[in-house]
């Protein structure tokens, strides 16, 4: 019987017995007839001192958590930076050679540490991936919000969100066994390369861009669309002339976030890009990215050698680029809000 | 007087809800017709049947006929886009596009294929003058429409609607989100506009209906109770319910 009559938290009947065993110290706050209607009666009244004590407790917990977070972040940055900069300061590799050199042979005689092939590889794959994913995402988002909202919400959205949950090794595997042979059959070369990497990455970042585009589309003021229709616009005119320009700033945010994600993705890219350390002449020629070099080489180097440190330098470049992407997103958001 | 729009036995259902019941009404040319009635009486819904904006709402079924210049706008051969060009609309909330003032007014003409820059310039100036906004914005045409005040935005929306040269202008509580001074300006504008356009306005402000309209239509619970010359309706209503409403006994 009790189970059938679910007690509502504010119900006066249930509240009384709950309030009775509370510390019955009639302090100034308890003197006024708060009773069942004021606030949550189930919570026992506390004296001022215990209230401030719990206040302190909460503050302490949050402070500790925040401190741990801040210390972690800063020590990570510091660690990567100190290791990465050691290449230049301890081992004496020149920064300009590192950033602009195109020859990468850390074990060579003499060794050379030109990381430009990886930097270009990273940028090429992630930007190309965004170029593929952005229009697809926008169309998917328009479809889900404008054309078939019911089907979109119930079916499309979960499917696209599912894409975000697939492990990257699976993407890499599929890329290697489907995308690479496909590219090999059409274009010259092995199929491994920037094109394959970009295609795999574009599917991986599709959910990021799509969900941001969907959000911004469904947050558009109703009047925007109506205003356009009321002037005699067709659906496509409304989408292309009024909806697209209005969501473009937040779309860009999504695209940059997608690029950032693609930039940092290691495993899937490494599996399909071919991993040869030069700047490729075509999109279908074997190449490398910052992440793929790090994952491939880190097991083969000895701590505190220049070969190891230079990998940290690559990591530092990744880190700095991440900061840049975050900065761009912030900038775009601020501009969109205006 | 020549009737621009004739509504004959119009019924509208939202799913199971019978929102408009057997509406018969004629809207005479170059006059201001005001729809009044309590919230939820169907006056806005009815307004939106006149340019088929209800098409955008899922689950709406419409029976009966609405004729514009003798042609049924719900007929099979009606081009909705052309209809909405001929029957313009201004909404309750000012809804300029997040574009420049110029691009807002030029949006409609561009939709309908006008590309020529000097022609667009002419249209924009004429429309903004028509909405008595030109003097205020003529030097800021490149600025974002969102930087204007609420009243200016609403007049911009009127200018935007005028730019496609409609025959009828529907105003859906166009002043309810505005301050009294902006409201007054829009009311003056409406009096000016009726020389060239037929205006149908929904208002829940009876004084506004009395001030600006030539004919007033009273709706209640989805029924058209009374449609009369404004003066007659407010001074000597035929129906007892109209009298109760305008004397403030309910609503």
Strand and helix layout:
The complex is a heterodimer of chains A (338) and B (251).
Chain A (H helix, E strand, L loop, with lengths): L11 H8 L8 H4 L16 H42 L5 H6 L3 E2 L6 E2 L2 H32 L1 H17 L2 H19 L7 H25 L3 H9 L4 H30 L2 H7 L16 H8 L8 H32 L1
Antiparallel strand pairs in A: 1-2
Helix pairs in contact in A: 3-13, 5-6, 5-8, 5-10, 6-8, 7-8, 7-11, 8-10, 8-11, 9-10, 10-13, 11-12, 12-13
Chain B lengths: L2 E12 L2 E12 L3 E5 L6 H7 L10 E9 L2 E2 L7 H7 E4 L10 H11 L5 H14 L3 H4 L12 H13 L5 E5 L7 H14 L4 E5 L3 H7 L2 E6 L2 E7 H6 L4 H7 L5
Parallel strand pairs in B: 3-8, 3-9, 6-7, 7-8
Antiparallel strand pairs in B: 1-2, 1-4, 4-5, 9-10
Task: Describe the protein's architecture and organization.
The complex is a heterodimer of chains A (338) and B (251). Chain A is mainly alpha-helical. Chain A is built from 13 helices and two strands. Chain A has a two-stranded antiparallel sheet. In chain A, strand 1 (104-105) and strand 2 (112-113) form a beta hairpin. In chain A, helix 10 (235-264) packs antiparallel against helix 13. The longest helix of chain A has 42 residues, at 48-89. Chain A is globular, with a radius of gyration of 28 Å. Chain A starts with 11 loop residues before the first helix and ends with a helix. The relative contact order of chain A is 0.12. Residues 1-39 of chain A have low confidence and may be disordered. Chain B has 251 residues and is α/β, with parallel strands linked by helices. Chain B has one domain: Rossmann fold, CATH 3.40.50.300. Chain B is built from ten helices and ten strands. A six-stranded mixed beta sheet of chain B has the order 6-7-8-3-9-10, sandwiched between helices. In chain B, helix 3 (101-111) packs across helix 4, helix 4 (117-130) packs across helix 6 (150-162) and helix 6 packs parallel to helix 7. The longest helix of chain B has 14 residues, at 117-130. Classes of the chains: A mainly alpha (338), B alpha/beta (251). At the A-B interface, helix 9 and helix 10 of A face helix 2, helix 3 and helix 6 of B.
């Amino acid at each position: 019987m009790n189970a059938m009559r679910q007690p509502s938290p504010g119900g006066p009947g249930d509240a009384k017995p709950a309030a009775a065993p509370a510390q019955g110290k009639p302090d100034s706050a308890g003197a006024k007839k708060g009773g069942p209607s004021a606030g949550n009666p189930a919570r026992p009244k506390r004296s001022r001192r215990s209230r401030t004590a719990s206040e302190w407790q909460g503050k302490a917990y949050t402070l500790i958590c925040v401190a741990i977070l801040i210390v972690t972040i800063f020590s990570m940055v510091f660690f990567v930076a100190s290791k990465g900069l050691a290449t230049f300061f301890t081992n004496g590799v020149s920064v300009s050679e590192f950033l602009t050199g195109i020859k990468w042979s850390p074990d060579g005689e003499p060794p050379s540490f030109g990381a430009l092939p990886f930097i270009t590889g990273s940028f090429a794959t992630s930007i190309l991936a965004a170029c593929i994913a952005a229009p697809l995402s926008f169309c998917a988002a328009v479809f889900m919000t404008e054309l078939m909202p019911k089907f979109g919400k119930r079916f499309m959205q979960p499917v696209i969100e599912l894409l975000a949950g697939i492990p990257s090794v699976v993407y890499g595997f599929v890329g290697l066994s489907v995308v690479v042979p496909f590219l090999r059959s059409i274009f010259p070369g092995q199929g491994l390369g920037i094109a394959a990497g970009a295609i795999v990455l574009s599917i991986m970042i599709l959910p990021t861009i799509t969900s941001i585009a969907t959000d911004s589309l469904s947050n558009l003021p109703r009047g925007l669309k109506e205003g356009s229709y009321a002037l005699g616009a067709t659906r496509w005119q409304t989408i292309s002339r009024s909806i697209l320009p209005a969501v473009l700033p937040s779309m860009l945010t999504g695209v940059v976030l997608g690029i950032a994600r693609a930039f940092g993705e290691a495993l899937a890219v490494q599996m399909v890009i071919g991993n040869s350390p030069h700047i490729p002449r075509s999109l279908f020629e074997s190449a490398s990215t910052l992440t793929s070099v790090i994952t491939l080489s880190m097991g083969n180097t000895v701590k505190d050698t220049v070969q190891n440190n230079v990998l940290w330098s690559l990591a530092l470049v990744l880190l700095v680029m991440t900061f840049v992407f975050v900065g761009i997103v912030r900038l775009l958001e601020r501009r969109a809000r205006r | 007087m020549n009737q621009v729009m004739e509504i004959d036995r119009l019924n509208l259902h939202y799913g199971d809800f019978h929102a408009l019941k057997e509406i018969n009404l004629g809207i005479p040319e170059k006059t201001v017709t005001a729809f009044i009635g309590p919230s939820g009486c169907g006056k806005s819904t009815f307004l939106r049947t006149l340019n088929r904006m209800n098409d955008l709402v899922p689950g709406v079924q419409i029976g009966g006929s609405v004729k514009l210049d003798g042609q049924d706008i719900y007929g099979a051969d009606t081009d909705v886009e052309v209809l909405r060009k001929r029957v313009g609309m201004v909404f309750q909330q000012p809804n300029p596009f997040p574009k420049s003032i110029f691009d807002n007014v030029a949006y409609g003409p561009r939709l309908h294929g006008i590309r020529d820059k000097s022609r667009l310039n002419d249209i924009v100036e004429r429309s903004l003058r028509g909405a008595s906004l030109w003097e205020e914005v003529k030097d800021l045409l490149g600025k974002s429409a969102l930087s204007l005040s609420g009243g200016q935005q609403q007049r911009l929306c009127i200018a935007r609607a005028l730019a496609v040269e409609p025959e009828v202008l529907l105003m859906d509580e166009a002043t309810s989100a505005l301050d009294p001074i902006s409201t007054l300006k829009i009311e003056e504008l409406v009096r000016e506009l009726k020389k060239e356009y037929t205006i149908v306005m929904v208002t829940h402000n009876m004084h506004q209906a009395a001030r600006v309209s030539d004919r007033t239509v009273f709706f209640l619970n989805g029924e058209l109770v009374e449609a009369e010359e404004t003066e007659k309706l407010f001074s000597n209503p035929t129906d007892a319910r109209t009298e109760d409403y305008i004397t403030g006994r309910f609503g």
